[in-house]
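Researcher: Going back to the complex we discussed earlier. I've cleaned up the inputs and rechecked each line, so this should be the final set. Can you rerun the prediction on the complete assembly and write out the structure?
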Amino acid sequence: MGLTPLVDKLIEAFQILPGVGPKSAQRMVLHLLQRDRDGAARLAAVMQDALANIGWCDACRNLAEGDVCGLCEDARREDELLCVVESPADIVAIEQAGGYRGRYFVLHGRLSPIDGVGPEELGMERLLQRARELGPREVIVATNPTVEGEATAHYVAQLLEPHVALVTRIAHGVPIGGELEYTDGGTIVHALQGRRSIN
Amino acid sequence: MTRVTGERAVVLHTRPYRETSMIANILTERHGRIAAVVRGARGARKASSLQPFNQLVAGWSGRGSLMTLTSFEAISHPVLKGDQMAAAFYVAELVMRLLAEHEIAPRIFTAVVWSLDSLEAGDLSTEVVLRSFEKLLLEDLGYGIEFGQCADSLKSIDPQARYELIPEQGFVAAAEGKEGYSGADLLAIADDDYSAASTRRSAKKIFRGLLNAQLGARPLLSRSLLLRGSRE
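Model: Rerun complete. Updated structure for the full complex:
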């Protein structure tokens, strides 16, 4: 595009990021090269370090430095509860919300036959093993409220029910502060089906 | 340039596309299966309307293979549980794999809608819904076989006799020592009567063989969704 071949290569490399096209990649690269070379060096070093040292936790498949992640190492968390999520970002969301002190398991995806994602790709065997190790009282399936997420939840329930006393699904419904009038039909259908007694 | 509005459709599959869009595969009543980009579809409201197995009234425009969905409104949100959902994935996967894009297939559309409605209503067993769907799909794609007539003698199937299936031809009298299928079961399948367990077993085996011949080496993943596979 006119600068040097290496600059072009760097601009192209930045475009792997979500939401970054050629224009913003160019801005980022020029900023780093012209104004913040120290920052660029730090970014490169941390990136290398992260790639070399961050893998998946052996126990729960969350992101981890070393063999086991911080959540699995933390002895204060309850082994009684195990929460199954689609991605590490979901763990962050649940942890930020607070109120949950149990363990996790990350599937890194959801069942989607047409996309070629079946039970093996999601580490279902590892999940079964994890549930047997922990012996939780309850497994909470917190996959997303999509058709694929539901299919995944159903599969997890079938897999774990012989080994765990209670397998539950997170509730779906009208969001807090929302208004029925502006809520879509699918959500309302689920909210009505999942209604519960007030007292 | 194609421009269609107000067409009934069923969502078969969606996948994320770029940052905020989606590509939806929908089966339409009069235009066959189409793939269409839906812009800004990752927000909860639009994504909810485009969940697989929803029925839509949709409009689209474009040329070539990939269309742009210009309007859509969900007219049903089926709530499927467990095996019903696995069965719905199976129906969608079969259509995605076997029906070519833009091939006009109103009977397959009707059959998909009927299957999804029946799975949700639960008054027919999952197995009966799937066998009925498989039979119609095979017939409509041109891979159907004659269940009421012997392929070489052209006589009606004898309920007392046993038959074997010759691929792409049909049923002939079973050779000595071959188990084959009972004539009574074949006649029941011809009448869409799956009340006998032996009919359901035979139909499952026959349709699976016929479908596998069309699907080639890549297996259907939705079959693996059913842990207790025999119930499918």
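Model: Worth noting: Strands of chain A lie at 54-56, 63-65, 81-85, 103-106, 138-141, 166-169.
Researcher: Good, that matches what I expected from the previous run.
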